[in-house]
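Re: that chain you flagged

S.,

Sorry for the slow reply, it's been a week of failed gels. I finally had a moment to sit down with the sequence you sent. For the record, here it is as I used it:
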Amino acid sequence: INRIENGIDFITKTDVGLKAFRFANRCMMIQQAQTKVALEFRSSGKRVTPVYNGEWRLFQIMFLLMSINGVSDKEHPDRDIVDLIWFPTGGGKTEAYLGVAAYLMAYRRLSADIFNVDEYAGVTVFMRYTLRLLTTQQFQRATALICAAEYIRVENEHIYGTLPFSIGLWIGNDSSPNSLKDAAEKMEELKQGREVLKGNPMQLTHCPWCGSEFTPNDYEITEKHQKIRCHYTQCEFYGDTGLPVYTVDEAIYQHVPTFIIGTVDKIAQLPWKSNMHELFGEKNFYHPKHGFSLEDKETKRSWEKINRLKPPELIIQDELHLISGPLGSLTGLYEVTVDLLCQQNGIGPKIIASTATIRGAEEQIKSLYGRNVMQFPLAVQQSDDNFVSYSVDTNKKPGRLYIGVCAPGESTKIQAIQTYSALAMITRSESRELIDPYWTILGYFNTLKELAGMLTTFKDEIPSRLAMLDPNNKFSHQLVVKEMTSRKKAKEIPELLSRMEKTIDEEGVLDALLATNMISVGVDINRLGVMVVHGQPKTTSEYIQATSRVGREYPGLVLTIFNSMRSRDLSHYEMFRAYHQSIYRNVEAMSVTPFSVGARKKGLTGAFIGYLRQMLIEISKEKSAHEFEINEQVEVLSEKFTKRILQTGEREKEEIEKELTLLLEWWEEMASKYEGNLDYRNMKYTKNHLLKTFTEKAKTKEAKSAMMSLRNVEGEIQVEEMWLADE
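Prediction finished late last night. Pasting the structure tokens below so you have them in one place:
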């Protein structure tokens, strides 16, 4: 309550704060209206007029008000608190933190001299996700926000400056290209009708403003620039205006977007890339058309000399419960580097996290960010009423109905055939008017093996069962079934999400979608109403997240098929009612140990070397590793790194100092031994290199191992197919 009152006090007493609050309010109204317009066009093909008079939910307004001091005043105590939005799925968490992002984007410009771009340009918001599917979904929503902000800026250039609000999708090379040259080649392949299996630059499939479907011709990518244009003539971003969106790494480094969305995996590239410091503000020159550069451009026309840009001031971590286990521990190590790179005059960024299912958040956040946490909203007197939300009786508003299915003596395959066939028969026999939410059946599987078996079943056993239930063939027994798993290519994910939105009156509607835990987070499709869960998921958190994909707008039905031969499944079936009545009480605490022996062995070298490489610009180039020496500046940086680690409370100062000193001495010895010829990584023409991956055979025996991804820690086993001469 005090923080909310302080926020109200700030915006009523400061003109800049009030203007930024109004900007955020208008921005969110436009974003929500245009999102509805885009969805309406995508689902029905009808063009409708946007209505900019929506409502923020009470908790979204309250969260923005309580965040205002922390994001506005760098010296305020709230700056060092991690705000955790703990709210059920579908409750509007995304809108809450996007509202804070909109406020900060406006406040940064309103409090600066708009004629000096270095006072407000650069990355303002850095948002990270753990899964590529989640990143793709939220990128669409965040892009709509940036379009709304740009719509307002164009009307008020004298207030918000001439530099556009923009957004960048900063993900792995498997999903999006790193270079413009590579992206241009792949766009040509797409325009010729060929399939791009890896690094598809076409990450936006629909216009976030008007909903029009993009074609490869809407993307203009050359070796020098990237532009995405909407082809609908009435769209605000039609023609030369284009969307302020960048999906290629090189274009992101050129323009340093206001808002960056990336995966947590990307930060593992810190020791391997020479220019990641540019996203944290290291730029010296600006050109209105070509963006920013760190190279000397004084001899070239129209390039303006500037001071370094501001680093990111807000970090958003969605689905915090996924930052756990090995991934969370390694992320915690690299968070030290990210936090220090974002610091300005010793002051770090504001951090906001969100989740629907978590326990032990205080310990997890302390280990990850070295900060205290404040949960919002907080239930004080009643567990089902926290002032901004409360439980509603299902007689007044339908929720989700959970049903457990267990048939001892019958295989789970037979149970699944009977269940899917019954659901298909019922939905296709009833009136089409109300049945759409239950037409597409979601299937959730704990393993790929079980899912693959069910895909085969949909092709043979289920049609046979339907032929018996429907002898008159009133509907087609060959159901349209797709899978959503890690086997899907990056370009197929957005297409699959679009198909899931199609209703029974549209061509291409899905009869069933079989998914692994990819569907657990980020799939916000309101029309879905029924799910079949094959076996109790490993954790309660996963169970809540997965089943929350259905029953958002319409009454939901969840059928869990238990295997009577598994003791865990049988136990859940026997305690079915009691378990579901207190389901949030059963959520497991997260395990994060970023400074354990195993985590340090895997990640400390990469995190520390990456920090030094990005901070010491003079030795950041690929062939500059030999120029390193331990001096006063290096000792200061090492001390900051140690201090940040100690904030987590996990290690003693002497232990950390000893490990970091050994790394510094090793690097200095390498630089001295291979003077004038030491690269950072092992490349084709490299003679000596400082780092290696955990799986490669190093040319330099003293090279230390560092990770390139936070997931693929162990090496893969290569399988070679061999044929005999006569086969």
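What I noticed first: The chain has 20 helices and 21 strands.

Talk soon,
D.
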